Amino acid sequence: MKRAVVLLSGGLDSATTLAICRREGFEPHALSFDYGQRHKLEVEAAKRVAASLGAREHRIALIDLRVFGGSALTAGIAVPKNRETGNASGIPITYVPARNTIFLSYALAWCEVLGAADIFIGANAIDYSGYPDCRPEFIAAFERLAGLATKTGVEGTRFEIHAPLIAMSKPEIIRKGVELGVDFSLTHSCYDPSADGVACGECDSCRLRLEGFRAAGLKDPIRYANR
């Protein structure tokens, strides 16, 4: 069984991606980040998801992107609420500078140690919030970089960045997760939850998630302050 590193945030996209990785016959090694985000709930959700979906191991890298800030998730900036997500223009303040580049670099380093050549990421270019590091062009560029920037790449290993959700709508992702046995009650998506973990229901992430469940004809199993 080939090993793969799976970036696992604890949200529904990354949970579905982990399930797809297993379905495709890989041995998944889940990687999450405590990066100074607004809350630790997503890290706890990632632990639950990794255990539920049978990750071979789950590691949490500790980094602090608050040293740069520049995002509502890593600085004292308010999270936007009740935006029209389908018509939003520009890159929102919840974008964390270079986050996926940083995360994929960590995953690439772990691949070298594991002797793995495959990385799975839940990036999505359809129902997303306008983040530049969720586009197919970015994934393809990082894949090329991986072959140039690593010892194993120079020695002939061809790295592949798998983004199985890249062209799927949120309802399609949710249906795929259900098909693969993902327990979405274990996941967390909200940018600005209450202290006891209740999702706000008003940030971009909550709204995209709620709209996705509605369009899929399913009930979202997590708690919301506002639906």
Overall description:
The protein has helices spanning 12-23, 41-52, 99-114, 136-149, 151-154, 170-179, 204-216, and strands spanning 3-7, 27-34, 57-62, 118-120, 160-162. Helix 1 crosses helix 6 and helix 6 crosses helix 7 (204-216). The mean pLDDT is 94. It has a 5-stranded parallel β-sheet with strand order 3-2-1-4-5, with helices on both faces. It is 36% helix and 11% strand. It is globular and about 55 Å long. It has one domain (3-189): HUPs (Rossmann fold, 3-Layer(aba) Sandwich), CATH 3.40.50. The chain has 227 residues and is an alpha/beta fold. The chain contains 7 helices and 5 strands, in the order E-H-E-H-E-H-E-H-H-E-H-H.
Count every helix, treating DSSP H or I runs of 4 or more residues as helices.
7
Unreliable sequence segments: none
Give the overall shape: globular
| Largest sheet, spatial ordering of strands | 3-2-1-4-5
Beta-sheet strand percentage? Answer: 5-15%
Q: What is the count of distinct domains?
A: 1
Give a brief rundown of this model.
The protein is an alpha/beta fold. It has helices at residues 12-23, 41-52, 99-114, 136-149, 151-154, 170-179, 204-216; strands spanning 3-7, 27-34, 57-62, 118-120, 160-162.
